[in-house]
């Protein structure tokens, strides 16, 4: 049992035994409200860990922060489910734009969609990173090995930052966006260069994933899941290598295939 | 091939054959911008079908609409990716509240989370619906049989409204929330009574799913996937039967077990 899971008493049905009482690990879901300079911005429904990274990653991805130096402090109030970020920049203008153009679609949600899209047009990702197909398959296997919470609950998406040889940062969360935002936040807070890295995830590759990767300049995005048409289109425009359906040693390259080099 | 999928040329890696060119069906992802009384509200990233239901369901779930009579017209502009809803009610106040308290977390996102929660406290779902375990298992099997798009792309979530004996409405989308919103919209537009129905889905059971079901008064929620702690807590408060992990004829009842009656 991890601190992200809770043991819950359930009724289990199995045709061979009928209905029986059982104990199950369930993934924790917590509402965390994010404040920037004392203004309430948003409530994230998440697992509730790495809240400094989640806050920083979300604020960077949404345009509130430009540099780690913008952050004067991050205060986590676990008891009340709040994160307070103090920022040296005036975030009023971004806040106005953000609340005005908020975009949503459950799993396929993307705040500030068109705004982000406009800003990215023409900002192609430059990278010399080249991978052998085995690098892709092995990093996905590493990702699966690292997720104790998934094995316990089947209730999280896993995401990792990796280079060709190993996983560098691992995060999981009930929301695939939260997991990515934590990685983004970690890299943002620690000024980790990303042009030679890949992002490996279990979540589907939708347009918002592409936008987040492009903002960071990550050249290769890998998922065990599939991609959407819009994600593929954006990947081609932004020169991101998009790889999906990594299962049983096989995978599919949707775009940027020149970065995958077989011996 | 369905109209929700596109054939895309990809590179496929298989250790036995190496890298080879292949054609794949990919799920369509489209940004659809929703206007209410000529005010731009939100852009949904979705598959792009049943847009009248998606708009009506979203607007009802978010509190803009109270009754189908509120809708004077729904105009779909496919070419520009827009849906314009004309509403007889003054939606200004809801719009202000909505933009102010927008809530987000990718897969775990829930607009107006606390507001919805407050409104629902004490609104327990009343229903005489009782199901045999076989009803649960069979309706999930029906759901899987109905999804051609999933078989082609593995890129959608499937959701259905059902009664004990059969599936009544089926919808799929890249976003699990979109699929639910379409069902909500369908029931809202057609004034379908829901106290004797169940909602069957492939998406995880998070708090937002619970809130949507509770708003409609649906007594039983079923998923092939798992539930979160917050969803279980809400289900107990709202007296909703929550069933997860329906796979290989087995399942787990997280709450409201008195509605599941074995012979």
Describe this structure in words.
With 263 residues, chain A is of the alpha/beta class. Chain A folds into two domains: 30-118, Roll (Ubiquitin-like (UB roll)); 133-259, Cytidine Deaminase, domain 2, CATH 3.40.140. Helix content of chain A is 31%, strand content 31%. A six-stranded mixed sheet of chain A has the order 8-7-9-10-11-12, sandwiched between helices. In chain A, helix 1 (51-61) packs across helix 6 (176-189), helix 6 (176-189) packs parallel to helix 7 and helix 7 runs parallel beside helix 8. The first copy, chain A, is flat and about 60 Å long. Residues 100-112 of chain A have low confidence and may be disordered. At the A-B interface, strand 1, strand 2, strand 4, helix 4 and helix 6 of A face strand 1, strand 2, strand 4, helix 4 and helix 6 of B.
Can you summarize this structure?
The structure is a homodimer of 263-residue chains. The first copy, chain A, is of the alpha/beta class.
């Amino acid at each position: 049992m991890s601190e992200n899971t809770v043991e819950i008493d359930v009724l289990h049905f199995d045709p061979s035994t009928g209905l029986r009482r059982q104990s199950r690990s369930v993934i924790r879901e917590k509402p965390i409200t994010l404040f920037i300079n004392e203004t309430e911005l948003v409530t994230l429904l998440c697992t509730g860990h790495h809240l400094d990274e989640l806050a920083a990653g979300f604020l960077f991805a949404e345009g509130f922060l430009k540099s780690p130096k913008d952050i004067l402090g991050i205060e986590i109030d676990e008891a009340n489910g709040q994160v307070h970020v103090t920022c040296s920049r005036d975030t009023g203008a971004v806040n106005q734009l953000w609340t005005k153009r908020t975009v949503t679609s459950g799993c396929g949600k993307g705040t500030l969609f068109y705004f982000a899209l406009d800003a990215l047009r023409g900002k192609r990702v430059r990278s010399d990173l080249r991978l052998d197909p085995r690098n892709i398959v092995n990093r996905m296997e590493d990702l699966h090995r690292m997720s104790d919470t998934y094995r316990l609950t089947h209730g999280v998406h896993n995401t990792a930052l990796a280079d060709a040889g190993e996983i560098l940062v691992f995060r999981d969360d009930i929301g695939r966006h939260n997991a990515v935002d934590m990685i983004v936040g970690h890299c943002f807070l620690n000024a980790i260069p990303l042009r030679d890295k890949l992002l490996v995830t279990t979540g589907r590759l939708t347009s918002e994933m592409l936008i987040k990767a492009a903002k960071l300049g990550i050249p290769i995005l890998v998922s065990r899941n599939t991609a959407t048409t819009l994600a593929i289109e954006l990947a081609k425009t932004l020169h991101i290598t998009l790889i999906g359906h990594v299962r049983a040693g096989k995978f599919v390259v949707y775009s940027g295939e020149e970065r995958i080099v077989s011996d």
